[in-house]
Structure formats: C-alpha cells, structure tokens
C-alpha cells in the first residue's frame, strides 16, 4: 500500500458513490451507459475471484466486495428499478467487440496459464476499454450532465493514480506488472480528451460536450 494506491481506491470509491447517488436521487439513469456498467460488473467479478482463495487484508477484502456489490447494484438500478429511464436508443455500443478480443488476448498473453490468472488478465484488458460505451453514449447525445462528468473524472483519476502507484512501486520496491501498466496507459489515454474538456468546461460551470 502507498499513497497513490490509496488515493486511487478512494477516487474509484468516490466515482461509484457519485453514480449511485445520481441515479437514486434523480430516480433516473439517463446519460449513463448500462453497457459500460455491465462490463465493469464483469471486470470486478473476474478480477476478485481470489476472494475465495487468498486473504491479503481486511481493507483489501472489503474494497473488493464493495466494488462487486456496487457494480451489480448499479446494473440492477439501470435495468430493473429505473428501466424506464434507461436510454437504450443511444447506448448502442457493441460490447462483444470488447469482450471477445479481451478474452482472446487474456488467453494468449498472461502471467500464468491458470484459471484465476487468465480471468485476472481478462479483467485488466477489459477494464482498459470498458468506459468506451459511456464515452460513445456521451458523444451520441452530444453532452453530459455535470454529475455524470464528475463521475467520469473520478473514474479516470482512479486509473491515472494507479499508474503513479505502479511507477512508485517500480522505483521503491523494484516491482512492476507490465500487463497492468500497459492496460492502465491505454485506459488513461482514452480519458485524455474528456479530462481536457472537464477542466476547460465543467470546472468553469459549462456543460461538457464531446464531438459527435
């Protein structure tokens, strides 16, 4: 554990809280990609199967359980409780184009060819592109609500901070995880355009708009 990982976890937790509060308070999931939320649920499920086999710490276990439960709670709110508000007409990204390549890549490039390691690797690859349906939805609708923008910024910050975590661990502990680093870089790059617009628009009280 280091300060960058702690801040990354807190940023991730903040993103989830922002999203759940947004959906619950407005009684609407408009502007949120259900397909991205499904992908995140798959990511956390396949990544944290080690909860059944390995104990690291209470903090580690609690955070993993929170992320899994929150991801499924979000999917439930979107596809069951507030289904009528879900914008399925714009949330049209073909997630199989993300799932299948991630699965194939995980089978070909992994740390160790075991079930848990392949699933962990699959989750890393998939998370790096899981936000694409959300960005695609924002692009199709033309803009994002401020609260949705805050959610995306917190989620993007989580991955950026995890990159700093890996840099810190390489310098201090002489340890690095190449798969996680490369996937993290890809994911952070996907957020770059959004980060720029967030800083120049949202923080100045303007609506965030992505080019269609």
UniProtKB/TrEMBL annotation:
<comment type="similarity">
    <text>Belongs to the ERD2 family.</text>
</comment>
<feature type="transmembrane region" description="Helical">
    <location>
        <begin position="92"/>
        <end position="110"/>
    </location>
</feature>
<dbReference type="GO" id="GO:0006621">
    <property type="term" value="P:protein retention in ER lumen"/>
</dbReference>
<keyword id="KW-0813">Transport</keyword>
<dbReference type="GO" id="GO:0015031">
    <property type="term" value="P:protein transport"/>
</dbReference>
<dbReference type="InterPro" id="IPR000133">
    <property type="entry name" value="ER_ret_rcpt"/>
</dbReference>
<keyword id="KW-1133">Transmembrane helix</keyword>
<keyword id="KW-0256">Endoplasmic reticulum</keyword>
<dbReference type="Pfam" id="PF00810">
    <property type="entry name" value="ER_lumen_recept"/>
</dbReference>
<dbReference type="GO" id="GO:0005789">
    <property type="term" value="C:endoplasmic reticulum membrane"/>
</dbReference>
<feature type="transmembrane region" description="Helical">
    <location>
        <begin position="122"/>
        <end position="139"/>
    </location>
</feature>
<keyword id="KW-0653">Protein transport</keyword>
<feature type="transmembrane region" description="Helical">
    <location>
        <begin position="178"/>
        <end position="199"/>
    </location>
</feature>
<keyword id="KW-0472">Membrane</keyword>
<keyword id="KW-0812">Transmembrane</keyword>
<protein>
    <recommendedName>
        <fullName>ER lumen protein-retaining receptor</fullName>
    </recommendedName>
</protein>
<dbReference type="GO" id="GO:0016192">
    <property type="term" value="P:vesicle-mediated transport"/>
</dbReference>
<keyword id="KW-0931">ER-Golgi transport</keyword>
<feature type="transmembrane region" description="Helical">
    <location>
        <begin position="62"/>
        <end position="80"/>
    </location>
</feature>
<keyword id="KW-0675">Receptor</keyword>
<dbReference type="GO" id="GO:0046923">
    <property type="term" value="F:ER retention sequence binding"/>
</dbReference>
